[in-house]
Structures are given as structure tokens and as C-alpha cells.
Amino acid sequence: MRPAMRVVSGIQPTGNLHLGNYLGAIRNWVRMQDDMEEANRAEGTTESGDAGRNQCLFFLADLHAISMPHNPAELKRATLEMAAALVACGIDPQRSVLFNQAQVPAHPELQWLLNGTARMGWLNRMTQFKDKSGKNREGASAALFTYPVLQAADVLLYQATHVPVGEDQKQHLELARDIAQKFNNDFASEDAPVFTLPDPISPPKAARIMNLRDGTKKMSKSDPSDMSRIELADTPDEVMKKIKKAKTDPEPLPSEEKGLEGRPEALNLVTIYAALTDGSVEDVLKDFGGEGFGKFKPALGELLVETLRPISERFTALLDDREALDAILARGASQAREIGRPTLEAAYTALGLVR
Ligand code: TRP
User: How far is CA 121 from CA 117, 137, 147, 153, in A?
Assistant: First the structure.
């Protein structure tokens, strides 16, 4: 039997969650959780206490969020919102470990221990630091510079075997592997490594969901117009209205994908329909080619309302029940602390630190 998979992934909390977030990272997480469950069933390892169990740990990277200028009240709100959204979208805290970093001090603890192993030269090559600090390197926070070391701690703490990473995070995972390798070489014996080197897994390519008022821009939480995005908290009426008012062109839908070239708004609406039905743009055009938006928009609106209804109900209910939400995060954090403890202790010990 192959060894259990342990998937670990984090996401920075953002507020005003919208359809783009759902059809992107969030839905991928739910799929990974379901895949793990499937594997457990196939291998007969369904007991939650089973050590050989395939498992996902998902967390809100709230500690990473303070590496950029931020507003504390907004960070708090975004963290709770994101947690509620993840549960509403299908992350099941009974099956996956769901928590926020700030409740698991082992993350920053291990980061400090790993700071002794990470090399300045390695961090200097990180493109995200260059991008985010821009022209103002001297004014960037030290946290932004050591951000990738915290990210390494995030996954190494749990002996992650697999980390789903998009293009922009590949370099950070490579760094985590380099740190793990060097630490093992320098401080552990070959037959008892402290850290597992995690492998990247590429999440399925998420649909790019664009702004409903301008199909050339990504759907974004920061666009000033509410009408530009569908939010997870929108009521069915709001969803319907936003789709009906979405910008389009006067042409009917083409019967082939090529006919959508130069029609970004039409392409976006078709893309949304395809993502919601787990089909392709071609599939949608097979059904709607030749139809005008007078017919397509109501169909899309209804599909969206039906998909989002249970999600937004759960989402708003959880946001209104802070106690329930706090309990979910507290339980996840306590599980995470348990899972991470042996590795953290092993790292302290390997370094010669008296405990
Ligand atoms: N840096 C990641 C991002 O911005 C979030 C993240 C933090 C992460 N720690 C992680 C992702 C560990 C995967 C594993 O997307």
C-alpha cells in the first residue's frame, strides 16, 4: 500500500468573497478533500484515528497577511469570512483539518528554527518578494522577506507529502524542499530525517472569472462597482439582477469557441456557465449556440442562483454564529497542534536546543 497522502495548503484571507474565489481556489480544495475521502474509502482507511489515513490540512494564512501593510479590523473580518466561506463551500471540518495559523504557534516557532537554515541568497532570489516590495525594498517589512520561510514551516511542520501550488507559488515550494533537505543533511541522520520533502501537485486549471462590467478585467473584490462581481453573500434577487445587467454585445452566441474571440463579456458568461456545470465552453455552445442573451442570461442566472443558494445560506448563517465559527477554528487548531508537535520537538532537539 502506498504511504498516506498528506496534503497541506494555505490561503491568505480576503474579504468580499466572490464567484471567482469560489470557482478558483476554494472549489479546488473541496475537490482535493473529496479525492482524499475517495482514496480512504478505496483503501479501507476511514477511521479518523487511522494513522494511514489520507488527509488534507487547510489553513488561513493570517500570519502571512501581516507581511504587507494591513488594517487589523479588516484582517479579522476577512479571516472569519474566509473560514465561513470555506465551510459553506464544502470544506468539512470533520474530514479535513481547518484552522488559522495564528492559533498554531508552532508555525512561527518552526519558522524561526528554519531561519537558521534558509540562506539569504535563496531568499534574495524569490520573485514574489521582488514583485511585492517593488521599488521600495528598503521600506518592505522583514516579514515580507522571510515570508517563504514561514510558508516552508507551514508544510514541513505537518510532514506534508503534497502541496497544491499554482505557478506563482512553485518557487516557494522549491525553497521549502531546499530548506528541508539542508536541515536534514546538517542536523539529522540519514535514516531518521526530521522533515519530509513535499511534492508539488498542480491544481486543475481554474476558470478565469472576469468582471461582469468589463470582460477584460478579472473579477475582483476591490472593484468599486458591486455590479461587477457576484458575491457569495448575494441574495438570489441580487444574483439574477447582476447577471441580467452584465455587459454583453448584441450578437447571438456562436456555435464554436472561436466565435467568442474579441467578445470578452460573452466569453466570460459562457465560461461561468461551463465552470458551474463542470463542462467546457464548447459544451455550453452546443446547447446555446445561435441563442441571444435574452435566453442565455436567465438560464445562467438560474443556474447560479441554484448553485449559490445553499452556499450563501450557510455562509451568512455561519457569519451570524460567531460561536460556531470560533468552535470550528479552535478544534481545527487543536488538531493541527497535535499533528505538528512531534515534528516541532524533533526540530528543536536536532538543533541542540534544550527543552
Ligand atoms: N503564499 C500562499 C499564497 O499567497 C499562501 C500560503 C501560505 C500557502 N502558506 C502556504 C500555500 C503553504 C500552500 C502551502 O497563495
Answer: 12, 16, 14, 18
Q: Where do the structural domains in the chain lie, given as residue ranges?
A: 6-207+322-350, 226-317
Does domain 226-317 fall into CATH 2.60.40.10?
Answer: no
Residue 1 pLDDT greater than 60, yes or no? no
Q: Which of 221, 241, 247, 297 is catalytic?
A: 221
The CATH architecture annotation of domain 6-207+322-350 reads: 3-Layer(aba) Sandwich (3.40)
For 60-95, the pLDDT digits (tens) are 999 999 999 999 999 999 999 999 999 999 999 999
Determine whether 218 is an active site residue: yes
- pLDDT tens-place string over residues 176-222: 999 999 999 999 999 999 999 999 998 888 889 999 999 999 999 99
Task: For 162-175, give one letter per residue: b (16+ CB within 10 A) or e.
Answer: bbbbeeebebbbbb
Residue 82 carries which side chain, given as an amino acid letter? Answer: M
Please tell me if the domain spanning 6-207+322-350 has the same topology as the one spanning 226-317: no
Handedness of CA 232, 238, 241, 242 (dihedral sign): negative
- Amino acid 47: pLDDT: 63
**Ligand 1 pocket mutation pick from 21, 70, 151, 167 by most atoms within 8 angstroms of CB:** 151
pLDDT digits 0-9 by tens, 28-67: 999 999 999 999 999 887 666 566 889 999 999 999 999 9
Compute the distance between CA of residue 40 and CA of residue 73 in angstroms, rounded to an integer.
40
* Rg of the chain on CA atoms, in Å: 22
Catalytic residue, chosen from 76, 170, 217, 218, is 218
- Residue 67 Cβ inside 6 Å of ligand 1? The answer reads no
Q: Considering the chain, what is the average pLDDT of its residues?
A: 95
Distance 8 CA to ligand 1 centre (A): 9
Atom of ligand 1 nearest to the CA of 25: 15
Catalytic annotation present for 132 = yes
pLDDT band at 15 (very low <50, low <70, confident <90, very high): confident
How many A from CA of 80 to the centre of ligand 1? Answer: 18
Q: For ligand 1, atom 8, which residue shows the shortest CA distance?
A: 10
